[in-house]
Amino acid sequence: MGDQDLERYFSQSEKQLEIERVLKCFKLDPFSILELPYGKPEPKQIKTQYRKKSLMIHPDKVKHDRAQEAFSMLKKAESELHDDTRIKFLLSVIEEAKVEALRDNGYKVKTQVVATTTDALKQKEQQEKEEQEQQKKEEENDNNKEGNDDESIGSKRKKTVIESATVVDAGQYPFLKTPSGQEAVKAKVKEILIEMELRRRRQLKKEMEAEGAEARKAEEEVQTRKRQREEQKQWEATRDQRVNSWRDFQKKGGKKVKKVKRSGL
Predict the structure, then answer these.
(1) Which residue range or ranges hold the J domain (predicted)?
(2) Which domains, from first to last, does the chain contain?
(3) pLDDT tens digits for 127-158?
(4) Alpha carbon separation from 203 to 28, 49, 86, 216 (Å, rounded)
């Protein structure tokens, strides 16, 4: 179905409702915005959902005061799910949310560590990076060529990068597949992301306060040096005046001090 046919398939009321749904979603949860299940999504899934929903809420496709805001949320969610680093972080949050949701509902949770290897493209990039670093070392250590050759061989053998993650085996916990279980996980994901965002903001605030204190201290030092320079400049500017005043004083024989006669008691 083409984009135009798909767009006509949705009524204006459905588009309005979809905008309201997106706006109610938690902004830090791209899965809920795109209505994707919690798990590593396939690029095709992301593309399909984004295409479908963008045709529903794009500001050019529907009349709504907050259509642009909803579309921005959708675009940001799609971008995050294409970011490997962000996906890795979100998946770790989801697994933690599953554990907490299960424990809150009386389950004893067992987790397992799953090791995975990076894809071929990542392996190639990693290998190229290592080879570039090795080449740089060889250029810096021309006198030790033999040792560098050995290191180069070892570097080229490092083709597979293994990553590990702690996960919950959903098959052992049917609760996670129920509507109430899914809602519990979703609520925990939101709770964890909020706490982490607040923690990030507190840390950022501390760093900004520290930077502000350093900036104020630096500014105070600048002002102190400036004041000292001004005082020194003023002192030098009035030097001749002070010297002349002293000379006049000396010529007059110094200032005479009047003796005060004390009367007896």
Answers:
(1) 29-86
(2) 1-82 (1.10.287.110)
(3) 666 667 777 766 666 555 545 554 444 444 44
(4) 18, 35, 20, 20
